[in-house]
Amino acid sequence: MKKFLLSVLSVLLILSFVSCGSDPENEGDDPVTPAVEEQYDNDSILDAIDEARDLAIEADAENLAPSTLEALDEKYDELYERAEAEENIVKEGKELADAYLALATYLQAVEAKELIEETEMQNVAADLYKQGCEALDELEEMYDDGNATSAQLLAKATTAKSCFDAVLNTIYKKLSTQARQTALEAKKDADSVKAGVAMKSEYNKAVETFKKGDAYYTRQQSYDAYKCYQNAADAFSDLYDEVSEKREAAERAIEEAKQKVRESSEFAEEADEQAPITEAMDGIEEEDAVLLEEEEYGDPEDAEADLPETVAEPGTVDIGDAK
Fold it and tell me: pTM (2 decimals)?
């Protein structure tokens, strides 16, 4: 969302610096107005149009609004030819750039509305959702009438998208809080089977994904935070399942080995009764002999990541302080 907004702002910034010409100044009572050469920058306006069109393409205008895009492209071809002929296309170029931006913003608003409805949580910000729907309906009527200016279309599209984005942020803030708790529970399960020791690399990746979610949350990027928490929860759950499965297999193997040892011991006892060994033999150690030096292992709990139970609300802590 923020990437799209920054792209729109960059186009608008270009447009704001393009000059449409300068007005001659009257000097005193001199009835003769000095000739002033008209100044315009076709190259900059064409760059702004290209950037605005790219945003419309990224919003899938080719599939979702092909006829509207085609009409704008025809106008673009016309302006491009005029620019090559060194005609001043700045005014019409600004209008066309606004039209592409309006189309891109409209499609973004429609996508945001669909995302909201997929969650079925419109009621968490009912008033904003209603305002967005009304703005979107009005915008579609403006497109149907064909009488609105590009600037009017862009303004209405921006209103609709802003409302829906605010609703989405509210929804995903709530969802991300729930997903974070799910991820913490999944981590506790992973820690219970010492996943941090058994699969250290995968465990650390899951921890970093969780921390990334906290960073997004504090930057008020609730959708990105939600996805990170979801991915972390899935990763911790997969770790728990995989390590548990390997542990069960290892325990079965140990039990089978013990059974073989018991069987061998019984056989040895029977053989010893029938033909006992009374003298030391090469290759057979004393019963109390130390064959291997005792190894010392680190505490598995040292491999467990310490993640906070709660995350600071946006604006209350720096990103660098978030764990």
Answer: 0.67
